[in-house]
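Retro notes (design track)

What went well: tokenization of the new backbones is finally stable.
What didn't: we kept losing track of which sequence belonged to which structure.
Fix going forward: every design gets posted as structure first, then sequence, in one message. First example under the new rule, 409 residues:
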């Protein structure tokens, strides 16, 4: 937002924010802009402790409105306006924890989720500006669902009630999966892959990736390689979720690979560094490490097929490093993985590719028994293949709110 907010002292700021939450405008959907700007001003110039007071008060107001069977959208909208304006993730979490603390009633949680989803629909349907309030509300509802799920087994909680809330948020987000909006797509992929109470994750992820996975992956890679402002958020989202594309149904994994291959050939100098950074951040789960290694091998094969020798060798250096990491996690399965990689690199072609043969020979040094192929690789070439590839420069990992506001812009 570009509104200029006149500075006020912290004590007065707290009073302004609380007054707006208590006012009649906070019970109305889409409070007047004057009320929104007043709340944002109060929120902006409050101390971190005062912001915590503000969101706790908002949670208490929401509980009171719920008990009196009144609409909940107003206070949520005001809080989201403040959070999105300041990109304040710590206070966002404080708001969600306050909601969990003021009540353990699953029906209250569901009403909160319903109000949040309703608000996000309205905000995201308004194509003016960047819809940051709607984007912030989507982050809130997905993180609220995850928080409800994580607390389901704790003392005093209602596991069945929590499951109903999670199911409601899941089905509601899935119902929006056809909407052409990155905020919804990013939220849905994040929520489905993280929710511990979700029992149908694989089929749901396959469903959404088949619907929008190609366009989302293309947008994220484009952001990383070509859009400086969005690049850092795109990298960390990919670091967390690219494995979801790799481990999807075979046809979807192949689709994802084709998008990666396109950016590899478009950015041959930068792509190996991207894959090196991804390998550093990727989950240490065996399946994820294995599928990552196999996709890197497929990319090496693709580079060799178009005689991009240096690109293939640079990716092989990334693969070597990644396989060493794989060996640390699953040493007993390393030889089996190497055989799989060799099969991918050589493919089904009768004529041997000299680039591939040199790379295969270099990978044999990773075998647990220390044996190498009989073929001798020239020392100069072997050094080039083993040369370290510097990971891409990335900044600090953004919060979910910062990530959303960057990726959905």
């Amino acid at each position: 937002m570009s509104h200029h907010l006149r500075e006020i002292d912290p004590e007065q700021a707290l009073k302004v924010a609380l007054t707006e939450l208590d006012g009649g405008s906070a019970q109305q959907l889409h409070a007047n802009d004057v009320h929104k700007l007043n709340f944002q001003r109060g929120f902006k110039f409050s101390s971190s402790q005062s912001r915590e007071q503000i969101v706790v008060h908002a949670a208490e107001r929401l509980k009171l409105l719920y008990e009196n069977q009144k609409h909940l959208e107003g206070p949520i909208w005001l809080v989201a306006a403040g959070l999105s304006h300041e990109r304040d993730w710590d206070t966002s979490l404080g708001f969600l924890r306050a909601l969990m603390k003021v009540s353990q009633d699953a029906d209250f949680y569901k009403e909160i989720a319903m109000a949040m989803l309703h608000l996000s629909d309205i905000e995201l349907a308004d194509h003016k500006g960047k819809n940051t309030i709607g984007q912030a509300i989507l982050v809130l509802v997905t993180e609220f669902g995850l928080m409800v799920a994580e607390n389901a087994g704790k003392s005093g909680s209602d596991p069945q009630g929590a499951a109903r809330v999670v199911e409601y948020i899941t089905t509601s987000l899935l119902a929006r999966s056809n909407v052409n909006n990155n905020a919804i797509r990013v939220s849905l992929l994040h929520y489905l892959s993280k929710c511990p109470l979700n029992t149908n994750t694989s089929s749901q992820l396959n469903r959404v990736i088949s619907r929008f996975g190609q366009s989302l992956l293309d947008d994220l890679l484009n952001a990383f390689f070509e859009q400086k402002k969005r690049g850092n958020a795109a990298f960390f989202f990919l670091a967390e979720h690219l494995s979801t594309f790799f481990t999807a149904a075979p046809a979807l994994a192949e689709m994802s690979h084709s998008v990666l291959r396109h950016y590899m050939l478009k950015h041959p100098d930068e792509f190996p560094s991207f894959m090196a950074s991804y390998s550093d951040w990727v989950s240490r789960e065996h399946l994820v490490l294995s599928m990552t290694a196999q996709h890197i091998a497929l990319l090496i094969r693709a580079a060799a097929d178009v005689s991009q020798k240096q690109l293939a060798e640079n990716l092989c250096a990334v693969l070597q490093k990644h396989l060493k990491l794989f060996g640390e996690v699953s040493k007993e399965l390393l030889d089996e993985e190497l055989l799989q990689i060799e099969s991918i690199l050589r493919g089904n072609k009768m004529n041997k590719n000299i680039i591939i043969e040199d790379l295969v020979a270099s990978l044999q040094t990773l075998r647990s028994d220390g044996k190498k192929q009989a073929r001798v690789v020239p020392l100069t070439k072997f050094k080039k293949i083993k040369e370290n590839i510097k990971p891409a420069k990335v900044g600090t990992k953004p919060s979910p709110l910062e990530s959303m506001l960057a990726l959905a812009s």
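Added context from the reviewer: Residues 370-386 have pLDDT under 50 and may be disordered.
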